[in-house]
Predict the 3D structure of the following.
Amino acid sequence: MSYKRYSNHLFEFAEIMLFALDVPPHLQGFLFLAEAVAIRAKDKRSRFKAIYARIAATYGISRKTVSSAMSYAIFHSPDVLCATLRTTRGELFIGKVISSLALFINNFVLNSD
């Protein structure tokens, strides 16, 4: 499987997971979250600042805009996310969502081959 095709599968799987977790897909933050989860699943050592910068460069926007859009998407409908991640709204952060979903992909998708 080629690197690009592999990356597309990670992105698609991240989209499916976010949709299942009730993150509204019509928001721009949904797309940014899916990309961030795919990047983090591919490279566990990537820092969030670098992930946001990479996404921002792709769309020609600032890291702050990326972060704000992801926060809005998460907090637009947090109930299912909180229940799934076993956390409260006060402990729900972008990094926690990205890391948890990337870990799930690493453990149950990438290691199942």
